[in-house]
User: What shape does this take?
Amino acid sequence: MDRRERILKAALKLFNAHGFDNTPTARISKEAGVATGTLFNYFDTKEQLINSLYLYCKDSLIRQITQGIDKEKTLRSKLKRIYMNYLGWGLHNTDEFLFFQQFSNSPYIGEVTRKEGVSKLSSLLELITEGMENEIIKNSNQDYINAVIVGIFNSSMHYFIENPTLAKDEEFLEISFNFLWDSIKK
Assistant: This one.
């Protein structure tokens, strides 16, 4: 792991534990095992660090949730693959998931960073558009449908973090996905 990644991992851990304001850069540097000046060689400000961390976590998420969707034939099976991949990602990257929960709507995440994060999801958002156009998904306001999907994804993740044995129960996973699918299918 290079210095930049060590700094990001340390910031992730400390921001989750103490919040943004209560995490000084000196503490992040110490946790990462680098000099404070080294942190500023990679990130000009603490704000730049948290925005870089947001995109770092978003990249991790996108890599995981898109695995194997090109092998799926139907919209339902693609969405199910994304859902199952998301749960797998969150259960193995709980710190990253909790970071998103804490900071996704934070004023510390800049508008440019948010837009870049959304653009990374464009191919997934196109699936929903395609589903609406082909009358597979309810033809409603797409932002609302996206919010419903994200809400169910996140609620499911919280539930499975609290109940990890159910995250291994194939029948229960199918039921949980069906709650999502039934809420958006036409």
